[in-house]
Each structure stands twice: as structure tokens, then as C-alpha cells.
Design brief:
Blueprint (H helix, E strand, L loop, with lengths): L10 H13 L5 E3 L1 H10 L4 E5 L10 H9 L3 E4 L2 H7 L10 E4 L7 H15 L1
Parallel strand pairs: 2-3
Antiparallel strand pairs: 1-4, 2-4
Helix pairs in contact: 1-5, 2-3
Length: 123
Amino acid sequence: MSVHVQFETPEDVVNEIYAMLDLNKNGRVKKGSNEVTKAAERGTAQFIILAEDVNPPELLAHIPLICEEKDIPYGYVPSQEFLAQGAGLPKGTSAASVAVMEITKGAQEKFHDVVEAIKGLKK
């Protein structure tokens, strides 16, 4: 496991995270480790998604710690490219991390499912 990965995320939970992102297409997101770090520090992010294949992994090592301190739910997905696609970025780009700033009405239920699933993983 990489230095920034705090818990193992099963494939079904990863799929739930992608489904939540897909349902939340009209919600605001911040992309990139600097923007995500700011959103976490300010406590304005609703959910943070980190890619596991980041190199160097130290780039994201501080974000889970901030999330724990600010009580912001976060999860992991295996690929930067899939994360970028899920966040609506152009094909061929990658995103090491994404902060979901608002959860739209259509994504509320999936968001709660994902948060509950991740709570179970962290124990």
C-alpha cells in the first residue's frame, strides 16, 4: 500500500464512488492536490477522492490527515485517469485528487451509501 493510502478500498466501493461522481455531474468539484488541500483545510469539501497510483505518493500524504482532523469523508480509487474522467475532465488528462464541493440532490443517496461503506472500511 502506498504511503498516502490509509485503508484498502474494495472494487464495489470504488464503483460506488464513481457512480456518486457520475450522479453529481452538475456539482462543483476542485481538482489537483493544491486546490483539494485548500478545500480540506477550509473544511468546505463534502467528499475527497484520492487516486492510489499517484507518483510520488507523498504528494497526497497530508490530505487524509487533514480530512480526519476536519471530519471530511474521503475515499480512494485506483486510477488518476479514471478519476479525471469521472470528474468530467477531458479525455487523456489525469487527476491525483478531487474535492467534491457540493452534493446535488440526485447524488445525495449514493453519497450517504459511499460514506457509510467507507466508515466500515476504516474500522
